[in-house]
Fold this sequence. Notes:
Elements: E1 2-6, H1 11-21, E2 26-30, H2 35-40, E3 45-48, E4 74-77, H3 79-87, E5 91-93, E6 99-107, E7 121-128, E8 131-134, E9 140-144, E10 152-155, E11 160-163, H4 175-186, H5 195-210, E12 214-219, H6 223-236, E13 240-246, H7 254-266, E14 269-274, H8 276-283, H9 289-315, E15 319-323, H10 328-333, E16 342-344, E17 357-361, H11 369-378, H12 383-386, E18 400-401, H13 406-425, E19 437-440, E20 445-449, E21 452-461, E22 464-465, E23 473-474, H14 479-492, E24 496-501
Helix pairs in contact: 5-6, 5-11, 6-11, 8-9, 13-14
The protein binds xanthosine-5'-monophosphate (XMP).
Amino acid sequence: VVLVVDFGAQYAQLIARRVREARVYSEIVPSTMPVAEMLAKNPKAIILSGGPSSVYAEGAPRLDRALFEAGVPVFGMCYGFQLMATTLGGTVDNTGAREYGRTPLHVSKAGSTLFEGTPVEQSVWMSHGDACSAAPEGFTVTASTDVVPVAAFENDEKKLYGVQYHPEVLHSTHGQQILEHFLYRGAGIEPSWTTGNVIEEQVAAIRAQVGGKRAICGLSGGVDSAVAAALVQKAIGSQLTCVYVDHGLMRKGETEQVEKDFVAATGANLKVVDAQERFLDALAGVSDPETKRKIIGREFIRVFEQAQLEILQEEGPEVAFLVQGTLYPDIVESGGGTGTANIKSHHNVGGLPDDIEFELVEPLRQLFKDEVRMVGQELGLPEEIVQRQPFPGPGLGIRIVGEVTKDRLDLLREADAIAREELTAAGLDREIWQCPVVLLADVRSVGVQGDGRTYGHPIVLRPVSSEDAMTADWSRLPYEVLAKISTRITNEVADVNRVVLDVTSKPPGTIEWE
Ligand code: XMP
């Protein structure tokens, strides 16, 4: 493992991803972890991330000198670089020599371990106030900028390296190469980490954890739960039971995808709970979006727990594990703990006995989203599941503006299926983040179809592009594609006589309409 020591800010996650892109396994540890504990993990190399502090600020994170004397190769970036410099006797001054953003870097030692084979002039991404003016003894200065005399240094004998800039961001044109030079040349690591290794490793870990007991996994139809279930299935086979709650709010074909394709690909035991009526009953007469969301969430938990209870009654108390599709970013953001947490299932609803505790199995807790997709692909899950765009938990229930009824759901399912089909046919799936299709059930407008007047509902198309769903812009789809979707929906879906396009960014609009 390569450890990425996190000095705050968002850089550590990005560095960890870049190390994995170099096919070397990496993990993030907090800078407060004692050096002895870091070394006990037997790291092949350690990377010190950037961070928001000045090395001279009171309470700024420090590092025990022992880290640099353990014989483990270390690469400091930005704050990590300055910390390496000051800890080993170099000089970092608050000179007022600030550099932010794209900066020209002058490589003075082109044959150095980090810079070999890269241009003597390259563009790097800087973000610092303090600057290193003298490298520690035994170090060679390998690069500078117009402002900073020591922008990179190395001590090849001790395997210590540092750069003032951020090689992990794409604006640093040779950043990935320099990181790889550190890993392969500096630290002598063989690039061997692949999704195949992850699967092997996780299968062994799951078997060790679960032993001869049984596990339950809730499937939502989304990528994470499907891949987690497939991985656990591979490890323990028939000891796993998957539960899928069919709330009737899924899109066309999605329930079948789970029922048929997922089972075909994995051979999992699947318990499908048909709760469509129950959800429709609970939603009857409700138009308020927040109330709808609460009802759907509440019913979902009740149905899922009822299914758990039934499995427990059928199979006995050896059902002790609950599989969850938790990803690495969730773990890092919640404090980065190791080991497994014990959770108590919500025993206040659904009538689970008080003393039942599930231990969590979280086979994706080391992975980033794109890695989860690669693992899913390698496990043979269908493309439609692995590459699925985001879809809200409350499903089509929050894409009908107005009351949710069976007829309206069927109508929206048809319209949505047409839009998806045409977007896929036009090759736009990767370009758009998602495209909610919304039924304005309480609005009617006049139209003419055939020889007659119609009085039907509008369908809204809401295609957006986004990086993370926090902000979004409306997608400029080709007119021909929009025209085709509009023609097909108005022709093929009864009671819809108008298709409109939502041209609002987020903010001010949210992606979903409710
Ligand atoms: P909004 O509408 O808030 O949506 O801009 C942002 C992203 O979140 C998805 N979304 C949900 N996902 N449960 C989910 O799992 C929900 O209740 C939920 N509501 C919205 C939405 O599809 C978009 O990707």
